[in-house]
Amino acid sequence: MPERPPRPQRAETREIVELRQLKAAQPELASAIDMQIALVDMQRRVQSRVPLPWIQVDPEWQKAQQTAGRPLVRFKDIPLEWSDFRLIFRQTADILQRFDALDRADYDRIVALGRDGNALEPAVRAWYDATSGVEPGSDPRNRAPSDAPASLDQVLVLALRPFLARCAEALAQKVDLGGWNHGHCPVCGWEPDFSVITPSAERRLFCGRCIAQWSFASLTCPFCANDDRALITSFATRDGRYRVAACDVCRRYIKAYDARRAQRPVMVAVDSIATLPLDAAAMQRGYVG
Ligand SMILES: [Zn+2]
Ligand SMILES: [Zn+2]
């Protein structure tokens, strides 16, 4: 066997380079940026080991799911490798705790759940089934045991991301999502948490869980479907790079990267952090994220 040369040091991704530049430009965001770098780096390492799943989608079933507003990824489609999942679940909790995004009591309970081999798997399955709505009759209120800490959602969203992102990738190659006109994700059913206004002035939403993207009417609220433009409040950063569309019916808002006047394409992991000051502005006006 010929000896392999040592592996070169992994180059930093474009996202991490951009995050470091953002930190230099906006030092007041340093802690949020450092946390994001830790999360992005961990997710990338796990995702590189997750195989692209083979998801069988029957066209009739797809049509029925789409009409009912139900997404396409069933729990059994997710290429979950439990030892990897356990690791990322624990490391996600560690990172959030290190940056004070998770309090100590919640952290201890979440870590205990991760260590309990018999409890974790059914809990993740029940949470996904309840929050994706992929099966008829599921109820998001039954996502977790009533005594589970509220922050469990955040840990599960981040820990499942590399596995669900691979599902989104696999589906994007074989399924046309162009007919999907709902405000939630066509892949995993979660809510959007960022958006982009494309150079042709179309709006695309990004799922807050699997990062799938889909087109959505630019003046409709994705959370409550309000499409009265008099009841959508919109404001932008001074440079016009980022915008907020806030709904005066349900009081939710969504941020956008305005690619019509941008030097680079949208990068959700970067732009969602660069816009933290916009979140503060939206909340000051009484909207909720
Ligand atoms: Zn999704
Ligand atoms: Zn609304």
Overall form = globular
How many beta strands in the DSSP annotation? Answer: 6
Termini Cα gap = 56 Å
Sheet with the most strands, sense and barrel status = 6 strands, mixed
Bound molecules: zinc ion
Give the class from helix and strand content and strand pairing: alpha+beta
Number of helices: 9
Quote the average pLDDT. Answer: 94
Order of neighbouring strands in the sheet with most strands: 3-2-1-6-5-4
Low-confidence sequence ranges: none
**What sequence of helices (H) and strands (E) makes up the elements?**
HHHHHHHEEEEEEHH
The percentage helix is 40-55%
Rg computed from alpha carbons, rounded to a whole number of angstroms: 20 Å
Query: What portion of residues belong to β-strands?
Result: 5-15%
Question: Any key phrases for this structure?
Answer:
single chain, alpha+beta, globular, 289 residues, binds zinc ion
Summarize the structure.
43% of the residues lie in helices and 11% in strands. The protein is an alpha+beta fold.
Provide a descriptive summary of the structure in words:
With 289 residues, the protein is an alpha+beta fold. Helix content is 43%, strand content 11%. It is built from 9 helices and 6 strands. The protein has a 6-stranded mixed beta sheet, with helices on one face. β4 and β5 form a beta hairpin. α2 packs across α7 and α4 packs across α7. The longest helix has 23 residues. The radius of gyration is 20 Å and the shape is globular. The model has no long low-confidence stretch (mean pLDDT 94). The structure holds zinc ion (ZN) (2 copies). The site of one zinc ion (ZN) has 8 residues, from loops.
